[in-house]
Design a protein that fits this description.
The protein is mainly alpha-helical. Helix content is 67%, strand content 9%. It has 8 helices and 3 strands, in the order αααααααββαβ. Strands 1-2-3 form a 3-stranded mixed beta sheet, covered by helices on one side. The two termini are 22 Å apart. It is found in: Membrane.
Length: 307
Amino acid sequence: MLPPPMSRLPSNDQTQVMNWSLGVAIVLLVVKVTAAVITGSSAIYSDAAESVTHMLAVGFAAWALRFSHKPSDDTHHFGHDKVAFISSGLEGAMIAAAALLIGYEAILQFVNGVKISSLGAGMILTGAAAAVNMALGLALIRVGKRRHSQLIRANGQHVLADVWTSAGVLVALLLVGLTGWVWWDPIFASLAAAKLLWTGLKLLKESFAGLMDEADLEVEKQLRDLLDADCAKYGLSYHNLRHRHSGRTHWVELHLVFPDEMTVHRAHEIATEIEAEVAATLEPDGRVITHLEPRSAEHHEEDWEVR
């Protein structure tokens, strides 16, 4: 069941939340750079470095969101939504790169010593940035889950990773202020780097899985439960079930096996009903293709299609 391509734009809440993400990223980068300059803290510097990568990544994600909703054309028959996996992979790579930069800066402080000043101003600026990012990150993940958008969810995870970095900075500066021991600063910078590296590698893994069409076991169980019920209802069987998710669209294909005496017209009617039911369970968009077989020819001449 392949309806004609339509020109679709991302929903208003998707566009708005990504625009907010980009605007906030720019403002908070200025705030964090200011805090890093006035304090000389490697932990705050690490927070600012992560914000640079985030600003670049969210700019790409905002473009990718619109690009992913372009309809299929003569050179992209299955649409453009796989760009979502490229965008989330880019976010993951940039988070990991920021983690390595932060770790390097912490090592330099361990070697060369630590100098920190203006702790109060640094804590106020960092705390404000963390609060704003927390609200933004939760909003991004909420919209991403509701719209089944890997791209927006990845951006939300990146924002929340920034919150973790800022929280580490605040704890480090608080401990420095309470104890006078400046080594808390590079220690917490190192911990932030480790957390960011884990988040970045996780996003890269998810992006690679999407680009390689890794099957979703939860979706497969849902599909098989529905197909088992429909086939029992109509006295059919099925095989060669395959499915993949391209970022926004679920693609499903399978073979339906009908009694030899059933007319092609009736078999087509039943197949169309099953296709519609399967597509309706796949959010936000489902595409289903079935191949009809008579029972006497089941599994014949299909070696080319065996996975």
